[in-house]
Amino acid sequence: MKTAVILAGGLGTRLRPLTLETPKPLVDIDGRCLAEHTLLLLKRAGVTTAYFAIGYLAEKIMAFFGDEYEGIRIKYLVEEEPRGTGGWMHLVDRKDFAEDFIVVNVDDLSDLDFRELETFHRKHDALISLSLHQVDDVRAFGVAELEGDRILRFVEKPQPEDAPSDWVNYGHYIFSPRVFDIIPEEKRFMFEYDLFPKVAAAEGLYGHKYRGVWLTTNTPEQLAQARREWRLPTEK
């Protein structure tokens, strides 16, 4: 896979006042900003072109990265108004997404090797493959109901007694270009509510159970933990 999209348009409201002037992708973790860690993981996977889907303080992100980082060509999908997790898909030239591609949340740090997820994705001829992680408390996540490796549905933020599993979506994906044929027509849409159910109904949504490192950065407490614990994985 040569192409990736980094979802980096959020407001980072739970990290304010830090994110009032600094967009979340530029928040420091262990001497590099969040987006740099993401790009270095993508470089390890062989990505040569990365698109930033951005909105809030977009100009600062564009000024920081320019058009290249560590040999990766950088492009931008600038949302003039919020489009949810999926609206950027209406901004791309589909000719540039003719092969499977990575989609990743800038909020989440993981040592996942995307090459392993790619092998899983192709084994199942999936429309979308998600990396899933186990959690002790499911109440803040989208929880997968599974039949083998196939995801039947997600239950968003359930009570523990209502959760179909303890495996959750943490924002590391591989998409087939075939997904463009079934995305909602609306300019703004959410993966979780508007796309994944359609892909699951087409029996094309698969979950790869990953037991490695995952750290999220949505709250000051989570950010502090990430700053203590995160180290960029070495090349395998």
Q: Helix fraction?
A: 10-25%
* Overall CATH class: Alpha Beta
CATH architecture: Alpha-Beta Complex
**Uncertain parts:** none
> What sequence of helices (H) and strands (E) makes up the elements?
EEEHEHEEEEHEEEEHEEH
* Number of beta-strand segments: 14
**SS-based structural class?**
alpha/beta
Residue fraction in strands: 25-35%
Number of domains: 1
Main pleated-sheet profile:
8 strands, mixed
Rg computed from alpha carbons, rounded to a whole number of angstroms: 17 Å
Number of helices: 5
If you average the pLDDT, what whole number results? 93
CATH superfamily: Spore Coat Polysaccharide Biosynthesis Protein SpsA, Chain A
Could you tell me the CATH topology label: Spore Coat Polysaccharide Biosynthesis Protein SpsA, Chain A
Shape: globular
N→C terminal distance: 17 Å
Q: Which strands sit side by side, in order, in the main sheet?
A: 5-6-4-1-7-12-9-13
Set out the fold topology.
Blueprint lengths: L2 E5 L20 E2 L2 E2 H11 L4 E6 L3 H8 L2 E2 L2 E7 L22 E5 L2 E3 L3 H11 L3 E7 L7 E6 L2 E7 L10 E9 L15 H11 L3 E5 L4 E3 L3 H10 L7
Parallel strand pairs: 1-4, 1-7, 4-6, 9-13
Antiparallel strand pairs: 2-3, 5-6, 7-12, 8-14, 9-12, 10-11
Which short descriptors sum up this protein?
single chain; 236 residues; alpha/beta; 8-stranded mixed beta sheet; two-stranded antiparallel ribbon; 5 helices; globular
Short description:
With 236 residues, the chain is α/β, with parallel strands linked by helices. It has helices at residues 34-44, 58-65, 114-124, 191-201, 220-229, and strands at 3-7, 28-29, 32-33, 49-54, 68-69, 72-78, 101-105, 108-110, 128-134, 142-147, 150-156, 167-175, 205-209, 214-216.
